[in-house]
Queue: 4 jobs
Job 1
Amino acid sequence: GAGVSQTPSNKVTEKGKYVELRCDPISGHTALYWYRQSLGQGPEFLIYFQGTGAADDSGLPNDRFFAVRPEGSVSTLKIQRTERGDSAMYLCASSLKGQGNTEAFFGQGTRLTVV
Amino acid sequence: AQSVTQLGSHVSVSEGALVLLRCNYSSSVPPYLFWYVQYPNQGLQLLLKYTSAATLVKGINGFEAEFKKSETSFHLTKPSAHMSDAAEYFCAVSVGTGRRALTFGSGTRLQVQP
């Protein structure tokens, strides 16, 4: 596609429910990143994929959060037993090679609200 | 570990005035530095990046930033603000080895007054 696509754009869920957030990166980009942005803050790193594997998942806050990228393209961020504190904007980005000096292209994000 | 500090969560300038958004970084190895802009209801867009070539970096929309190692700074400037520059601006750092994700500052919201 022309850019990074994230669906849904908005998600409201009840506390304790399971949610999945989808990211469709730019075609050909091997690196994919998930970030979380709370109101008034900058994005915080969650996980980085190089191809199909999670090269760095050190930003995942706890074991309720999990992400996959089974075919090296689309990625899904999964959150189990959601809590109100999980409410935030979840951003996905992709880059051509995942090197530190290459540009990351961001999607418009999924705004998750846990009620 | 690397970090970024953006001084001033809100900056207000008059249209036509100089824009100066401050960013200081901390990194134990030579960093790569970025400025991103976020317009309302849009994703982050890269304005410019420093990757150890020229210390004065020119970006889109008339913005530029200068890498100053001695001051550990990467301030963003634009000579003349336009109403369309009103947005949230984020400074970010990454390092060439290890984690390749970006570490962002907390952002500066720029208001441009007519």
Note: Chain A has a mean pLDDT of 93.
Job 2
Amino acid sequence: DQQVKQNSPSLSVQEGRISILNCDYTNSMFDYFLWYKKYPAEGPTFLISISSIKDKNEDGRFTVFLNKSAKHLSLHIVPSQPGDSAVYFCAASSGGYQKVTFGTGTKLQVIP
Amino acid sequence: NAGVTQTPKFQVLKTGQSMTLQCAQDMNHEYMSWYRQDPGMGLRLIHYSVGAGITDQGEVPNGYNVSRSTTEDFPLRLLSAAPSQTSVYFCASRGLAGDEQYFGPGTRLTVT
């Protein structure tokens, strides 16, 4: 049972445009959500997070939106840059020391 | 700080062999975890630990053992390797106050 789903395995975007990566979850106990970025042959690195008490969190070019009623979150990258080309993982937990569940990832390609 | 280190980087095993994947962190993090990454499956949690002497199972624990005798180290043992355990393995850690996990560079394991 996949509790965190990323239904788009890949996404191509022109440099300078907006990239929107989507994530859906099924477990209503999740109250903390994170995005990680992964380059080939490296471990994932943390990008941005959001608590369920917020509906938006922004960090530079990256913004995460959370829609609790729809159990949906999205990551916006504006403007997209070639260096953003990577696999992006959505992750969720029910807080504290609870285990973190990851989605299957979306491979983003930013075309120069 | 070295962060999270993993050894070896690459390993080839024959079916039935045993081995231990090493993971160490120097950030004094209480929470440590092991994931495996397979194509189309994302990052799946194998085992995790919330402190020395405390471990618990994740989504895919079968065939793997862990122990946590110190805060720094969290080794993953394969007692009898199977081809289905061919994967890339990532160790991660995080502290009490943070929700962001820090990942190691990964171990690529092939079981023939």
Note: The interface with chain A takes residues 4, 30-31, 33, 35, 40-45, 48, 50, 56, 58-59, 90, 92, 99-106 of chain B (CB under 8 Å).
Job 3
Amino acid sequence: AQSVTQLGSHVSVSEGALVLLRCNYSSSVPPYLFWYVQYPNQGLQLLLKYTSAATLVKGINGFEAEFKKSETSFHLTKPSAHMSDAAEYFCAVSAGQAGTAPIFGKGTTLSVSS
Amino acid sequence: NAGVTQTPKFQVLKTGQSMTLQCAQDMNHEYMSWYRQDPGMGLRLIHYSVGAGITDQGEVPNGYNVSRSTTEDFPLRLLSAAPSQTSVYFCASSPSGETQYFGPGTRLLVL
């Protein structure tokens, strides 16, 4: 079985500051890991994914995440926040095999102030 | 490509009524899923399908039925609506069970 824990339901940063959104996972098999972003009143769109290749994954809009097996973590970072990054972010895990659908965390709302 | 489409966008039901939320995709994806999104709860998996004729339950399947007669369509049926089913419902499709492509969502209010 898989599960995801996102630490912090709300993160606030200033424009230009580092963004760090935390995600820890549990999986009985090597996981596939994802970060999705949701802007207000929209569906979710993929930011980046880890599927057992490079442990440092780069995504869209300057975001990246590092898979750390020893810490069972997949934290999302961006060196410099922009106002347009304000959104809700979801971490998700799947078993990476046919026949499963991803399980999502509860989400982290990112606020960016000027 | 229209991607994943959902209808209706918004619906109000009375307790006990039934309805079907429609989901269609034109990307020839084998995998399709239904999630509900509630404040503070994230997205929870209701049902999913790995191909036409094959469905399985997710985390919160009670009160919902699905069927998958074609690759393109994956309707979600509420048999007897309850206020606890007030939520935003998202349908998603995937070519391989990995990256999910989400629809715009259906907002459901059950009175």
Note: Residues 20 and 77 of chain A are 5 Å apart (CA to CA).
Job 4
Amino acid sequence: QAVVTQEPSLTVSPGGTVTLTCGSSTGAVTSGHYPYWFQQKPGQAPRTLIHDVNNKHSWTPARFSGSLLGGKAALTLSGAQPEDEAEYYCLLSPSSGRPVFGGGTKLTVL
Amino acid sequence: EVQVVESGGGLVQPGGSLRLSCEASGFTFSSYGMSWVRQAPGKGLEWVSAISGSGDSTYYADSVRGRFTISRDNSKDTVFLQMSSLGVEDTAAYYCAKGLGPYATHPDHWGQGTLVTVSS
């Protein structure tokens, strides 16, 4: 099955901007992979931030946005807040198989 | 308000079986696919299985196919995950989630999870 890759860790300064990416071993990520982004804080269940590339939920802070960038799915955080420190996971549905999560990105706001 | 609540986790011996339940509320249950995702202690998320709103389509990760069975009872707004031939590698928090459409395989609205421990 496809391997989905994310940066293991990233650091952003408070108020800064950071982009997390999500790639597929099978090739370029497209809207047909229905990329999702999830946030998980320690001891909590994941929550969905972005679905289908760039669609937000009512609870998704406006500072988060999703896109396709350079053959990958991307999650951009603009104006990072201390409460954004968390693990972020992407999920792709490769045409060849079942949904696959990336390994997660640990985002530090420092 | 959409809610999904998992139950049925616990301690089970290797080779044993367990059935997880997920009771949903706040939406028209039969109109949405439901999925299960697990997370081993200290590890990342792993997609496990999904079922369509009507129950006519089911999907499994390779790691559980043939051992786990997903089903749903739309009269009780509940989805189940029957797990058999459990191994220590199945130890994880199991999350149930509502999808965004009738054939959705991606989790969207998550429950709080139920812990399954496989140990002798």
Note: Chain B has a mean pLDDT of 97.
